[in-house]
Amino acid sequence: METLVCICSMCDALIDRYVVYKVETIGDSYMVVSGLPTEIPDHASQIAKLALELSTSSGHFVIKHLPNEKMQLRIGIHSGETALLTQTCIK
Predict the structure, then answer these.
(1) Domains of the chain
(2) Average pLDDT for 20-38
(3) I need a surface site. Which of 32, 70, 74, 88 has the fewest CB within 10 A?
C-alpha cells in the first residue's frame, strides 16, 4: 500500500504542473483530461507533455521492496469529441 501511495503522490505532483484535470482515480489508474471543463488552445500539448514526464519519472521511481525492478507505466491518449454521460434519478 505504501508503494501505491508514493506512486500516486508522484503522479499528483506532476499533474499539478500542467493545465489538466484529474477526472478520476480507480485503483491504480488515473484519468486525466485537458481542455475540459474549460477549453484551452494547447490541450493536446498539455496532455502529451504530462505523459512524457510521467513516463520519464516512472523510469526513475524506486520500488522499495523491489529496488532492482523498473516501474512500468501504461499511457493512452485520446483526442477528439467528448461525450458526457449523466444519470438522472427519478423519484
Answers:
(1) 1-91 (3.30.70.1230)
(2) 82
(3) 88
To the nearest whole number, what is the mean pLDDT of the chain? 81
Q: What pLDDT, on a 0 to 100 scale, did the predictor assign at position 41?
A: 92
pLDDT of residue 89: 47
| Three cell numbers written together for 59 | 523510469
d(CA 2, CA 66): 13
In angstroms, how far is CA 75 from the centroid of its own chain? 8
3-state secondary structure of 60: helix
Q: Please name which of 67, 41, 71 lies closest in space to residue 56, comparing C-alpha atoms.
A: 71
- Which residue from 37, 47, 50 is spatially nearest to 78, judged by alpha carbons? 47
Q: Are 28 and 47 in contact (CB under 8 A)?
A: no
Grid cell of 68 as nine digits: 532492482
